[in-house]
Write a structure and sequence with these properties.
The protein has 245 residues and is an alpha+beta fold. It has two domains: 3-96, Alpha-Beta Plaits; 111-244, Pseudouridine synthase I, catalytic domain, C-terminal subdomain (Alpha-Beta Plaits, 2-Layer Sandwich). Helices cover 22% and strands 30% of the residues. The chain has helices at residues 28-40, 73-83, 138-148, 196-208, 217-223; strands spanning 3-11, 47-48, 57-67, 88-96, 108-116, 130-131, 150-153, 168-179, 182-189, 238-244. Helix 3 crosses helix 4.
Length: 245
């Protein structure tokens, strides 16, 4: 009998072309589907809570798949971890309600973007941080972030210029924390547009280095013009931390 299974997955996205399945390219979804299809002897579709970009990481991506298997959830987890590459791991598998859908049932997501501006490069974390050659002013960035919180049209912060659906989103918290040479940007919201977290981060960094003013943020939001926001921060510093249900 087919059952719906919920999975929590972590991965290093460095060598992948993002989450979503693409022909002839390595993706996280593709790797998961290959392993589960072999396990079940039939094609299995894996639904993720979101579509992380190429090079972006996840500590707790939620996914679900409907499968007919005699294996227990723990045995499914162990099978997947045995055959998945070393940069993808399944932390948990459990039976889910028949109508559970990893994307449509999600009510919030937390992303963290990590930068480093210390004197000695973080050699062993280099794939997961963006190294800066300047020292951004955290207080200026926090002032700018306050304008970006709330319910807004984030079209200026969307990486897809042909986006036809609504670009209104709710970002209920942007937290910027400095710990030594590391600067952590935490973004929590109901959902995010393509490249949105990276563009928000790039814009805040421009404020931090004095190239933009915090008070420009309302104007950028209102303009709905991608050209007015800052650059898209590199993918390696971004990690999906958790998905809320």
């Amino acid at each position: 009998m087919k059952k719906n299974y919920k999975m929590i997955i972590c991965y290093d996205g460095s060598r992948y072309y993002g989450w979503e399945h693409q022909p002839d390219r390595d993706t996280i979804q593709g790797k998961l589907e290959n392993v589960l299809s072999r396990m079940c002897g039939e094609e299995i579709d894996v639904i993720g809570a979101g579509r992380t970009d190429a090079g972006v990481h996840a500590k707790a991506m939620t996914a679900n798949a409907v499968m007919d298997t005699r294996l227990s959830p723990e045995e499914i987890r162990d099978y997947m971890n045995r055959y998945l590459p070393d940069d993808i791991a399944v932390k948990e598998v459990r039976e889910a309600a028949e109508r559970f859908h990893a994307r449509y049932k999600a009510v919030g997501k937390l992303y963290c973007y990590t930068c480093f501006d210390g004197p000695v490069k973080p050699v062993f974390q280099r794939k997961y941080v963006t190294v800066l050659d300047y020292h951004p002013d955290v207080e200026r960035m926090r002032r700018a972030a306050a304008y970006l919180e709330g319910k807004h049209d984030y079209k200026s912060f969307c990486g897809n210029p042909r986006m036809k659906k609504s670009t209104v989103r709710v970002v209920d918290k942007i937290e910027i924390i400095r710990k030594g040479g590391f600067i952590y940007f935490n973004f929590h919201g109901t959902g995010f547009l393509q490249n949105m977290v990276r563009i928000l981060t790039g814009t805040l960094l421009e404020v931090g280095r004095g190239k933009m003013e915090p008070e420009q943020m309302p104007e950028i939001l209102e303009a709905r013009n991608r050209q007015l926001a800052g650059p898209t921060a590199p993918p390696g510093g971004l990690c999906l931390m958790k998905v809320d249900y």
